[in-house]
Amino acid sequence: MTLSIRLPAEDEAMLARAARALRVSKSEFIRRSIAAYAMKVAHTPEAIAEIDAAYIGKGGLRDPAKVTNPQKRAIVERLRAKHGYAG
After folding, report:
1. C-alpha angle 12/17/22, rounded to 5°?
2. What does the longest C-alpha to C-alpha distance in the chain come to?
3. CA distances (Å), 56 to each of 11, 15, 18, in order?
4. Is-contact 7 15, C-beta < 8 A?
5. Cα→Cα distances 73→65, 69, 85, Å
6. Is it the case that residue 24 has pLDDT exceeding 50?
7. Are 40 and 47 in contact (CB under 8 A)?
8. What is the pLDDT of residue 19?
9. Residue of 74, 83, 33 lying closest to 56 (CA atoms)
10. CA distance 52 to 57
11. Cα–Cα distance, 61 to 52 (Å, whole number)
C-alpha cells in the first residue's frame, strides 16, 4: 500500500536523523515505527488510552461540544459516528 504524508520541516529533519542513526531509509523507519506502535496497542489495552490522549485526541476536537463553529461541529459529529471514536 502506498501512503503519502506531509510532515512539518522539524519532524522531517527528526525523521531523517533517526533513520540515519539506525542506518535505514526513512520509509523503513516509518514502517518499523508503525509496527512497533501497533504491537504496543494490540498487546497493551492501557496503551490505547495513553496514545489517544497524547496524539489522536490532542486539541480537544474529539468533543463536539468544544467546537464552536456549527459547520465544524457537524463534521466532528459525523466523524465520531462513522469511526466510533470514544469521547
Report:
1. 125
2. 48
3. 17, 20, 23
4. yes
5. 8, 6, 14
6. yes
7. yes
8. 94
9. 83
10. 5
11. 12
